[in-house]
Fold each of these.
Amino acid sequence: MQVKGFLLDVEGTLVADKRYQPIEGAVEFIRRLRPAGLPLRLITNNTTDSKASLLAKLGRAGFDLTMDELHTCIRAAVTHLRALGATRCLILGTGALAEMFADAGFAVTDTGEVDAVVVGLDTDLTFGRLRLACDAVARSGASLIALHRNRVFIDDRGRYAPSVGAIVEAISYATQVEPTLIGKPSPAYYRQALDDIALPAQSVLVVSDDPFSDLAGAKRIGMHAAFVLSGKYRERSVIDSIPESQRPDVIAETIGELLTGGAIEL
């Protein structure tokens, strides 16, 4: 497979989990793209770190990347909220996430009188906060914004935990309001990344450990897809339930194996 640009997932693809230990061959993969002059973007649904914090973590793990190469769901959400004309937001997530939206100019409040409920990863979620979000959507008509809908994530102790999608599903089920999806696999999110690297979809390879969300979404808009077994899913058979047209083009144990195994040419 010969491609002209790359969109790379982070957790489960470049680093093992929230501990940000590099996966074998991942640092070298990035290094080998540089002499070839091939553009890349890290496509991340991370809702707990600012771009600066994320870049610092990746730097400590050995990755040489620039701020411009990080394409986050936070950036896409800010763009969407401004287009809506939203000014007041209820944020389900970490204090750092709330601060990011405040820094972007939104009034972040803990009342139900808001224009939008923005859902990120909230590991301290309480029933009271969940009730507040449901009330804002059902009674006040706030837009329900899902930064992503990932099912699970692997925490810093290697444990499987419910991700943003589980929280979004609870609010959507209770209010009967379908959320607006911002991060992967939203077509708008992917197209923004493609615009950044100025390449058509058919020239780009997406590499991820999530065949259900990231890679199926990539295939739907015409990108190539590589599934790595270094993250949430360790068995090749997990793709059996995915429609054939949305299955990955190649499967590898790790991102490094994509080069050493000859699946792609630089």
Note: The longest helix spans residues 73-84.
Amino acid sequence: MPKTLPMNTEVAIIALTLKGCTLGSLIAEQLNSDFFVPEQYKADFQGRSFSNLEQIFGYCFQHYRKIISIMAQGIVCRMIARLIKNKHVDPAVVVCDEVGRFALSMLSGHEGGANELAFVVSSITGAEPVITTASEANKIYVLGLGCRKNVSKEQILLAINQAMQKAKIEHKQIRLIASCWQKREEKGLIEAAKELGYYLRFLPKELYRNDLYAFVSSAASKYLDIKAVAEPSALLASKNPELVLKKTIFGPVTIAIAREKLING
């Protein structure tokens, strides 16, 4: 299953509040998606306006394969309850809070692509992707990756395999690859993640620029104006992490691996 979302208009974004519209506008611009805003905000945002929330959800369920809802989860539950049929035909639904703290895969996680979409939204806003499907929740390792520009898929795959062997873990235990915002268009990385079936999460610059972090990388400091990529990416994208592989250089690729210390991990 591919883990990246192409630029297209199969995605609809529905926002409800002023702050939600601001966040939705950012996501819509990045994804080239259709954006629906309340009538009262139509003069402030480029999008299609609506006056009845229940009707717009009904419309989007019929006409889009993926829906990003920026509002409380309870509201979305009530709006889609009468529309849900089954996981094979329902569109993917991701719910975001208006300040961009979380991106929750709510409906059609695997079949519809909501899990994947949550990571896409996360890479735009910095939100924490929330995935509750059991097959994903039981994966407890996060791979942080930095690489040179235009590195090939084969070089990425080789480095990941070498890192796996060094850390003594298997591919099926990896939850995602995390890297910095600058790597969002890195073709070799995207292709490698797709081949391995990994989710990709690209973290925004502001997450790295925290004085509490003591990471050091001369290359990251010189070219990206941040302290490092591999280790902070692995740790920032994990829950209660510990490094099981400190940053290790494999040719043009640097990898660090974090293990999430969870109750049932």
Note: The chain has ten helices and twelve strands.
Amino acid sequence: MARPVRIEYEGAVYHVTARGNERSKIFFSGKDYAKFKKYLGEAKEKYGFLLNAYVLMTNHYHFIVETPEKNLSRIMHYLNGSCTTYTNLKRKRSGHLFQGRYKAIVVDKENYLLELSRYLHLNPVRAKMVEKPEEYPYSSYTSFISASPESMVNVGAVLGMFSKSEKQARKLHQAFV
């Protein structure tokens, strides 16, 4: 049976996830998370997408990505391919790092973006890795509550749904999450 065709179009917003093969780890150390974020930054530079939120868990990740161009498959090929090559070389392993293809669900930005952002940022709390989302170092949550967000995270899409005042929006977002 043929694989279903991916839906890609200009201006699409996606909830993207990928899981480790056999639910195994894809991140083994802090350096692995940092390297993945480096690849994510390179992919942003190369393909010009907007990263509205992310969380990197030990065996999977979630993004909210907006693509001004119709290029999600190229973005993900670059990102997952780079991560797999890096991990295989570093860990002296071979084969698949990720379980099957990444999943990308088209998101209605107006109606689902806030809930999805909260879902991502609460992932480490639900997994009992931390008590509060701001304690987890591998997510974009602190970019939403801090006055100095990570440059690769587009906090405006989410915060703009709360208030025109950035300071007020940060407070409202924190209370919402």
Note: The helical segments are 30-47, 72-90, 109-126, 141-145, 156-159, 166-176.
